[in-house]
Amino acid sequence: MISGLACRPDVKEENAATLKYFDIKGYFTADTARLNKLSRMVTKTVTHNGVTENKKVKIDNWGHELDMFTGADINRPAWKNSYTIATGDNLVLYKAKEDELKVREIIIKKDKEKVKWIVIYTRTKNILYQTTEKLSYFPDSLYLIEKDQRVKLMGRNRYKIQGVIEQ
Questions:
Q1: Paired residues of 57 in beta bridges
Q2: E strands of 2-154, at which residues?
Q3: Rounded to an integer, what distance in angstroms lies between the CA atom of residue 56 and that of residue 167?
Q4: Does pLDDT of 43 surpass 70?
Q5: 37, 46, 104, 117: which sits with the fewest CB atoms below 10 Å from its CB?
Q6: Residues with Cβ < 8 Å from 33, sequence gap 6 or more?
Q7: HEC states along 2-38?
Q8: Are 145 and 137 in contact (CB under 8 A)?
Q9: Does the structure show a pLDDT above 80 at 122?
Q10: Are 52 and 79 in contact (CB under 8 A)?
């Protein structure tokens, strides 16, 4: 075996024309670069099990701030037939066919080609814990991360992170 030629499908470059599903990763990569340039203030509210903290912040790294959204990319070659696609009324819905897939649903509302909002539902489940997430993104106005985590022997945790982007 020749060194350095291991099979690494995640390294494969894909262009948007070959992607079967909406390019979540590409969209958020481009939008985080745009938000970094705009340098807007954000009113950020974090709630953990009912305890809320609120502050105005400047996000220095939007890529890091929105990495959960970028991580919901479903365009891996192994998943090319793993989601159903339904469309109508400027909406696109991707729904997981298999129970073990982490990204359960993605709903995208567009006006012509411009994204109006994206909502992503994820679930991770094993014998020790179950986590569900709802990720909502409204370009130029709001992002919302809602997480419900149940860990055996430790109980339940609920998190909510809301960022209101100032105009």
A1: 42
A2: 41-48, 51-58, 83-88, 91-96, 103-111, 114-125, 129-138, 142-151
A3: 13
A4: yes
A5: 37
A6: 62, 63
A7: CCCCCCCHHHCCCCHHHCCCCCHHHHHHHHHHHHHHH
A8: no
A9: yes
A10: no
DSSP state at residue 98: S
DSSP lists the bridge partners of residue 42 as 57, 165
Q: Quote the tokens at residue 19.
A: 């992607």
In contact, 102 and 122? CB cutoff 8 Å: yes
What is the rounded distance in angstroms from the CA atom of residue 164 to the CA atom of residue 167? 9
CA R_g for the chain? 18
Report the residue count for the chain: 167
The mean pLDDT of 66-93, rounded to a whole number, is 94
Judge contact between 74 and 106, C-beta under 8 A.
Answer: yes
- pTM, rounded to two decimals: 0.86
Report pLDDT for 46: 97
Tokens of 118: 């994206």
Per domain, the residue ranges of the chain are 20-165
The phi, psi pair for 147, rounded to 5°, reads -130, 130
What type of residue sits at position 146? E
Phi/psi of residue 157, nearest 5 degrees = -130, 135
CB distance 97 to 80 below 8 Å: no
